[in-house]
Amino acid sequence: MSATSKAWNGTGRPDPGHARTTHRHGRPPQRHGRHTAAKEHAMQRIGFIGLGIMGAPMCRNLLKAGFPVTAYTRNGDKLRAMAAEGAKAAESPAAVAAASDVVITMLPNSPEVREVALGPGGIAEGAAPGCIVADMSSIAPLASREIAAELAKKSIRMLDAPVSGGEPKAIDGTLSVMVGGAQADFDACLPVLKAMAASVVRVGEVGAGNVAKLANQIVVAGNIAAMSEALVLATRAGADPDLVYQAIRGGLAGSTVLDAKAPLVMDGKFAPGFRIRLHAKDLGNVLETSRELHVSLPLAAQLMEVMQGLMADGLGDADHGALIRHWEKLAGVEVRRKPS
Q1: N or C: which end of the chain has fewer CB within 10 A?
Q2: H or E segment to which residue 166 belongs
Q3: CA distance 270 to 316
């Protein structure tokens, strides 16, 4: 059995046995009043570490919901800006943990989470026994399991709770959260997570949340790639890509990804909601996990190569909708709305 197989349920498969959703099957997710959630858990002190494109609006939504938040990030300007909105600024992750019942981390990748959680001046140095760390970063499932095991030695609990939805949904508080961890810890953190999300689903034990996120990132990248090929073909054939998009979006080809990315692409807007280099990082974790499990993922591998080429062309910080630039270059066209 591979090391990664043990990372989520010891069987080489994600554990489906403890799935829990915050909405009933067949109905839209129900939003819960943020102020009500905060009132019910007024004594939960929240720590937030990482105030980037996603982390800053997520932290802001916790403040709007009435939770007391202590924040930390290495960028002093970002930390001061969040303090001006009501957060208490801390000088280290350890200081955040010492002031918090639940510590949320939103960081780039596994090494950063490991350092913030276990390194000098890290969460483990400041957290009291029983503190819960909810890592909302997207990292390797095995890393989540290893970090959780080290924190457990100090009676610190952990959830891996990566998110999907990008910057727009982080801003409006409608993210989707995929959670791995003990049921009791999930229940304790649910009001906090609901303040940032429209959908919160417990997938299984620690590591399972990041397994779900890896699956999510394969589907999103595949959707953007399929959209790119379709709209490049339409443009090269002389059709108006916007009209083609309007024609297909109501049918089986329609998707959340198509509606989110096609309008931006046709307006030539590639400012990041979610950067190509971060999606490539996620696909790196996908392929690392697939190798450990001996699972062939040729589509994910091909999309990783496309992203590598775009990063070599200087597009690593563009939105992942800029994947279309690969197919535009091959076809010698740009997919843009035709002037009216």
Answers
A1: C
A2: helix 166-172
A3: 11
Tokens of 222: 């595949």
> What are the tens digits of pLDDT across the range 182-194?
999 999 999 999 9
What is the phi-psi region of residue 278: left when phi exceeds 0, alpha when psi lies from -120 to 50, beta otherwise? alpha
Side-chain half-sphere of 73: how many Cα atoms within 13 Å? 24
What's at 141, amino acid-wise?
P
List 169, 194, 213, 261, catalytic entry = 213
Told to judge if 213 belongs to the known catalytic residues of this protein, a careful annotator would answer yes
The angle subtended at Cα 102 by Cα 274 and Cα 48, nearest 5°, is: 40
Structure tokens at 134: 């909810």
71-103 tens-digit pLDDT: 999 999 999 999 999 999 999 999 999 999 999
Helix (H, G, I), strand (E, B) or coil at 176: strand
What pLDDT digit, counting tens, does each position of 47-65 carry? 999 999 999 999 999 999 9
Written as one letter, the residue type at 20 is R
* HEC assignment per residue over 91-146: CCHHHHHHCCCEEEECCCCHHHHHHHHHCCCCHHHHCCCCCEEEECCCCCHHHHHH
As a whole number of Å, the end-to-end CA separation of the chain is 60
CB 269 within 8 A of CB 282: no
Query: Is residue 275 within 8 Å of residue 321, measured between CB atoms?
Result: no
Picking from 167, 176, 214, the residue whose alpha carbon sits closest to that of residue 319 is 167
What does the CA dihedral 236, 239, 243, 245 come to, rounded to 10 degrees?
-30
d(CA 81, CA 41): 26
